Amino acid sequence: MELNYLEIFGTFVGLIYLWLEYRASIYLWIAGVVMPAIYIFVYYDAGLYADVGINIYYLIAAAYGWAIWMKGSWSKAKKKAEADAPDELPITHMPLRFYLPVTVVCLIAFLGIAWILISYTDSNVPWLDSFTTALSIIGMWMLARKFVEQWFAWIIVDIVCCGLYIYKELYFTSGLYGLYSIIAIFGYFKWKQMMKAQ
Prior knowledge:
With 198 residues, the protein is an all-alpha fold. Helices cover 78% and strands 0% of the residues. It has helices spanning 2-22, 28-46, 49-71, 76-81, 99-120, 126-144, 150-167, 171-197. The longest helix is centred in the C-terminal third of the chain and has 27 residues, at 171-197. The radius of gyration is 17 Å and the shape is globular. The model has no long low-confidence stretch (mean pLDDT 87).
């Protein structure tokens, strides 16, 4: 029963996180620390071990994202924009040079996590769990760098997780991810609009 309350509270924090992410607010990183701390316990209880791992990663990535968004980009684009917005990282497209490394990292993470889950845990959904975890790893990195394409990763993750959490009887969390998948589509267009307005 205690974990049900944790799931409900995690869902509430997730809604706040989603609203802040949609608005590209730096405060999303505060919710980005609280939510994974809650879901570590929820997912462990449900036997979603890769999701436990990804939430530990989310805690670390939230600190990284906060630092990057606070400090701004260290790239040439940041140096050019320094006069106009010295403290804010701009929303940009992910440079083409990142696509191959990001794809390779995602595939290695997917296969590695699946192997760990199959070999060392009692997970009954190792492939889906590892898929959403691997895609979340790169999605979180893209969010930290404020790349608009991060929304594509989250749309896929959210749709798959919605079904996975129904299967695992995490109904509040499934509803949250269903909402995430809808908002992620709107978030993509909102960020594109904000990117043009910069």
